[in-house]
Amino acid sequence: MSVPLQGVPVGPELFVLLVVPVFFALVAVVVSALIYRDAKRRDSGHAIAWAVGAFFGGLIVWILYFVVRDEVGRAGSATRGGL
Predict the structure, then answer these.
(1) For FRET with 35, which of 18, 28, 29, 43 sits at 20 to 30 Å CA-CA?
(2) pLDDT tens string for the chain (83 positions)?
(3) Euclidean distance between CA atoms 15 and 49, whole angstroms
(4) CB distance 31 to 50 below 8 Å
């Protein structure tokens, strides 16, 4: 005798399938927008690339931007003494 497949997920399963991915996507959009705004404020020519990379690259790109953000754009070169 075969075991029938379960039906439509309800309760906690539905929460996990719908709400959790939407939450992570919303966090990615917000962080990408903040990175774009910061890179644009620093006159970076690659602000869009940073934002797209932050959206699709996730935590790794967020950390990378935080580490190199002083070197992004003209504001970064002024803080390094114009080197």
Answers:
(1) 18
(2) 565 556 666 778 888 888 889 999 999 999 999 999 999 998 888 899 999 999 999 889 999 998 888 887 665 444 444 44
(3) 33
(4) no
pLDDT attached to residue 11: 77
Q: What is the dihedral of CA 37, 40, 46, 52, to 10 degrees?
A: 10
Q: What residue type is 17 in one-letter code?
A: L
* Model confidence, pTM: 0.69
Query: How many residues can be counted in the chain?
Result: 83
Buried b (16+ CB within 10 A) or exposed e, 23-59: eeeeebeebbeebbebbeebebeebeebbebbbebee
3-state SS class at 17: helix
Token pair for 73? 């754009």
